[in-house]
Amino acid sequence: MANDHTYRDTAADLLPLVGGAGNETSVAHCMTRLRLGLRDRSLVQEERLRAHPAVLGVVEDDTYQIVLGPGTVARVTPEFEALVERERERGAAGTPVTAEELAVQGAALRAERKARNATPFKLLLRRIAAVFVPLIPALIGCGIIAGLNGVLVNLGWLPGVTPALAAIASGFMALIAVFVGHNTAKEFGGTPVLGGAVAAVIVFAGVSHVEAFGQRLSPGQGGVLGALGAAWLAVRIEKWCRRRVPVSLDVLVTPTITVLGAGLVTVFGLMYMAGEVSTWIGDAANWLLDNGGAVAGLVLGGLFLPLVMLGLHQALIPIHTTLIEQQGYTVLLPVLAMAGAGQVGAAIAVYFRLRRNTSVRTTIRSALWPGFLGVGEPLIYGVTLPLGRPFLTAAAGGALGGAFVGLVNQLGTEVGSTAIGPSGWALFPLLDGDRGLGEVVAVYAAGLLVGYAGGFLATYCFGFTRTMLAELNVAPAPAAPAAGGAPADHAAPDGVPSRLR
User: Fold this and answer.
1) Which tens digit of pLDDT belongs to each residue from 10-25?
2) Torsions phi, psi of 419, nearest 5?
3) I want to staple 234 with a disulfide (CB 3.0 to 4.6 A). Which of 149, 198, 336, 395 is the partner?
4) CA-CA distance, 155 to 175, in Å (whole number)?
5) 358 vs 405: CA distance, rounded Å
6) DSSP assignment of 456-492
């Protein structure tokens, strides 16, 4: 897709496949996925949706998520939103049922899904992730500029430009607490600018004149964790005021009490406490890899894919951000990125093991390059997870890659990332560490190779039982109706028999 017209065409193709404009309750996107709130998921034409050339995969969660890939999703989403608005203005609901019926069905689906999947802990993690995910593009952009500036400084090139690049790369990180405060207030139902105003106290240079717990504060103390807590407290105070302050005084009293109350608690309590927690997180992450080495990397790299499936990986986002804020890079992300390498190796092994299954091999060919670039959803949901055992052997490959990076870290070479979000080959421009860039890149590249090889060998040798191979290593045939009209248990369009799903 090379131009706006094509992105508009993609949006126009997708809208009827998800039930039309009347079926959409919300439209948003993250790094790789178009996230849709749907009234009735039964209206989604999932088989046709997955077959669309722009769609890399589909994920069902609290929102219906269509994987389009980085860059593409940011261009398709506004076209999709505009199309939804135009269709609504024309009165085209796009569904064969009334809005009332859709609302009832949607409420029932949401209630059922929440009862089954949405634990309070996972919901909290999703909300915290929603605070940080919008910051990822800025982290990536500034991280790449910082890496470019480091190369220019080391080479002695463009000395008149490098100070400007350093300022551009560092400006966002210097004020990241303000953005976290703004997003936190927005996510938890407060006024975003008040959350940002309270969090701004953390980075204000004048706090160095304030003493708390017997110590003078330093600008930035508490970082993103302090900003998260300060903005959440501001939301609670603001909501309390809204219920009690007369409407005629609300515009004056509520913002004043909110900023004053949350600001005092932040200065005389949260900054110090969050600073202690942030320091502990940084020390713990470094200690884990410095002392745990290969074992720590094995566990982190091996468990990351299951954590992604459970949604628990979102708990790591503020940890990564804290490490980047403290040290300039997170040492955890390159280790966790090995999980994607294991996934790629496993998919290549499946490709060679299922030589006759043209459907699965076609899926792998289309999803493999995004996998190399760190977009793993197409391989996870289209290949390894439906097959079962290859998902576990992919995790084993990630564990081996993580063990390698962890071992090298223990031996004295830290490998870190200056931003969160990318992995795979897309992480190379963001690498940093305590050694020269060439050495850091070499270690990460070697870790990817170990992950690829580990995932391939584990899957090739242990990813299939004889029964699975007998059933899967065949050319997919169209399902024929069995006696009584029941469908026979043939391979589905993706080549995976239904009983193996």
Assistant:
1) 998 999 999 888 888 8
2) -150, 165
3) 198
4) 29
5) 36
6) HHHHHHHS--HHHHHHHSS------B-GGGPBP--B-
Distance CA 202, CA 188 (A): 20
Residue 431 DSSP symbol? E
Q: Does residue 142 carry a catalytic annotation?
A: no
pLDDT, one tens digit per residue, over 137-186 is: 899 899 899 889 888 988 899 989 999 999 999 999 999 999 999 999 99
* pTM passes above 0.70: yes
Task: Report the number of secondary-structure helices (H) and strands (E) in the chain.
Answer: 22, 8
The count of residues in the chain is: 501
Using CB atoms within 10 Å of the CB of residue 371, give its burial: 0 to 12 exposed, 13 to 18 middle, 19+ buried: buried
Provide the 10 A C-beta neighbour count for residue 379. Answer: 28
Spatial distance between the Cα atoms of 414 and 32, rounded to a whole number of angstroms: 28
Q: Rounded to an integer, what distance in angstroms lies between the CA atom of residue 130 and that of residue 124? A: 10
- Calculate ∠ Cα 122-342-331, nearest 5°: 65
- Quote the tokens at residue 228: 């998260």
Q: Single out the catalytic residue among 30, 142, 241, 461.
A: 30
Q: Count the Cβ atoms, other than its own, within 10 Å of residue 350.
A: 27
Q: Which residue has the higher pLDDT, 308 or 288?
A: 288
Fold of 4-118: Gyrase A; domain 2 (3.30.1360)
* Structural tokens at position 449: 């190779």
Q: What element of type H or E holds 424?
A: none
SS3 217: coil
Please answer whether residues 397 and 454 qualify as being in contact, where contact means their C-beta atoms are separated by less than 8 angstroms. Answer: yes
DSSP letter at 497 equals B
Residue 293 has pLDDT above 60, yes or no: yes
Distance in angstroms (rounded) separating the CA atoms of residues 265 and 217: 14
- Indicate where the chain has its CATH 3.30.1360.60 domain(s): 4-118
163: number of Cβ within 10 Å:
12
